[in-house]
Amino acid sequence: QAYRGSVRPYVNFNAKHDAEVLHKAMKGIGTDEDTILMLLTARSNDQRQQIKAAYKKAYGKDLVSALKSELGGLFESLIVALMTPPVSYDASKLHKALKGTGTDDEVLIEILASRTGEQIKDIIKVYKKEFGGKLEKDICGDTSGHYQKLLVILLQGNREEGVDEEKIEKDAKDLYAAGEGKFGTDEEKFITILGNRSAEHLRKVFDAYKKLSGSDIEDSIEGETTGNLENLLVAVVLSPAVDSVFYNQRAGTDDDTLMRIMVSRSEVDMLDIRASFKKMYGVSLYSTIQEDTTGDYQKALLYLCGGND
């Protein structure tokens, strides 16, 4: 499978050398932000962790703390996010989405709909270690109904593997019968099928569904369900291109969301996100970032975006 990320591991990587370059960029009066952002956006997360270790070994202090003391604002938040291992990053975003009053459902939906079973199991472990709580319990405390049930299914991280040819037609018919084919909607069927089958299997089911009903599954979901359940089902269907929906709030930039997508998808499927963004909005993600952001924060985001479409 071709690599769909925009950030690749740097080829002639030398952690010790990178640590020195960053040290120099922060030494003395003023900070060389350009050097910092160009270096870190051109390294994979795994390489950034090696730089962190090399920095501590050479200078006896933590690289992230050093960066925090030199930088500020959104740019600082972005650089710190880039320095965080992906699983810890997801766990902290989920914790932030759940704690305090109200729940940031958009974050729950985006992360749980697009991570693999292995990743979800790791997130649950890190969540417990870093925040002392059980992710499933915390999510159940903040959600309800069929929406909650589907989140719990996704939290099991046990999607089936491969394609079950025998089940394709049956699943498509069951989905049709559960929604468009009847008065009212049988949500249970939707969540069981969409929550448990593999992505490859679901793609074939959705093709069969279209032949059967004449409409796309996501249109049927939008017609049959509402609110968080609708958003989660659509996210599962569209995953991984789900992330392009993050810009519907075009009224202003939601920096939290923008940053989360750019950081967590740069090594996964940024090229797909760029393509679906262009298709949905008629403009490139790159030019939208140029319009909506400024300064070093903007420069770093553009490097992560990786190109204009």
Structure commentary:
This protein has helices spanning 15-26, 33-41, 45-59, 63-70, 73-82, 86-98, 105-114, 117-131, 135-142, 145-155, 165-178, 187-196, 199-213, 217-224, 227-238, 255-265, 270-281, 285-292, 295-305. The protein is mainly α and 309 residues long. The protein folds into four domains: 15-83, Annexin V, domain 1; 86-156, Annexin V, domain 1 (Orthogonal Bundle); 166-238, Annexin (Annexin V, domain 1), CATH 1.10.220; 244-305, Annexin (Annexin V, domain 1). One of its GO terms (biological process) is negative regulation of coagulation. InterPro entries: Annexin (IPR001464), Annexin_repeat (IPR018502), Annexin_repeat_CS (IPR018252), Annexin_sf (IPR037104), ANX5 (IPR002392). This is Annexin. Belongs to the annexin family.
